[in-house]
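Researcher: Please generate the 3D structure of the following complex. Treat every line as part of one assembly.
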Amino acid sequence: MPRTAPHMPLKLAEAAFEQFATEGFANVNLDQIAVHAGVTKGAIYCHYKSKHELILAACMHYYRLYQVKVHGLIASVPDPLDRLRKVLELSIYNCVIDKKNRVFTTEIFALSLQHIDVRSGWAQFYDTVRELFIGLVTTAKLAGQLQIEDPRSAVDMMLSAIEGIKLRATFEPHISDPVEQQNLVQGLLKILGYTEGSSADVMQKS
Amino acid sequence: MPRTAPHMPLKLAEAAFEQFATEGFANVNLDQIAVHAGVTKGAIYCHYKSKHELILAACMHYYRLYQVKVHGLIASVPDPLDRLRKVLELSIYNCVIDKKNRVFTTEIFALSLQHIDVRSGWAQFYDTVRELFIGLVTTAKLAGQLQIEDPRSAVDMMLSAIEGIKLRATFEPHISDPVEQQNLVQGLLKILGYTEGSSADVMQKS
DNA sequence: AATATACAATACTTGCCAGTATCTTATTAT
DNA sequence: ATAATAAGATACTGGCAAGTATTGTATATT
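Model: Done. Output below.
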């Protein structure tokens, strides 16, 4: 048997992600990616059979990264509402502060319009995120920390807002302020039925 | 003096919009646009000095169209809450049902990441939309139809949600259902402080 | 009618970049 | 050691599309 390079696909996907997330899919050529991975274009074609496949690999890499981050966070926070808030903070960070993630996902949206495989990849990823949030919200609701009738539709609206916030971050840099961050998280929690002050005992007032 | 063709720039911008909104900026070449405008590529360069300028013109065309539609709607509905609801319905229609608008704006977002002129064009447009909504919400609030403290931040969150809904529409076709439409409008109104039922007299209950 | 000039058509150049063909090198099983 | 083969380097091809040079044509002023 000859030598093998099992790390190369990942290494190339990482390098591709970095480049794509900085300059966009259309503005990056395979030579650039190759240079950043410390190889030449020919080597890329040993592991991926087209630029498109490399793009898909970069997407998968991004999805994995997000999952790892989120589940690490969830495992470390016991209280349901705290956990929800932490995940929201992470999501906002991912979308707003971390420019690479923001650019990369925005590019994915545009590419999804034309390529069904990119689209279904994102759809699958997004489903896991949605279910994750529905779980978090339901748990917090059962703990009496949220006043919400339909967690599913609330989560859908909240996730829409996050995506929209991501887009706005491109045009409104002030969104990156730490203070603004907290306001955004607060606004998202509000969509999820969090009422400021003594949380769950608002209903009893009337 | 020679002949003149004052309608050509608009005609080309319209044709460009149509093509870009169908296939995306990167997948449309100037020959295609020329054919759809009933001219040849050479003619385009009489009116625009690059593809990029034509893209900007297509953007401006889109912005104008939206403004015309919205202001036509506003003028025809007297009640503040009704007016707000109608504008929201139009916005959802624009973002979700009207695929061309959805595709075109998504492409703008991606292009904005790299091109400052595209970005500032959108930012300017978005500002007018934001101010419009703030006006609508404030009017409805003063009329006692909305329970909202800070119209500005509520509108920001609501507009984020709309943008996010637009993105989701690419991945979740069921959003196009008429029923779902109304749910979305209802959810957006909720963000703006609309409490279902007898609207403005909720406070008095406690 | 003549002519100046903007509009438009045609044909061409140029550069970029995905993908390929071919050659080299390193590794491992025998 | 050596044959077999995967990984990688280098150099090339081919196609696409933006932009340009040139030529043609219609119109408005004189």
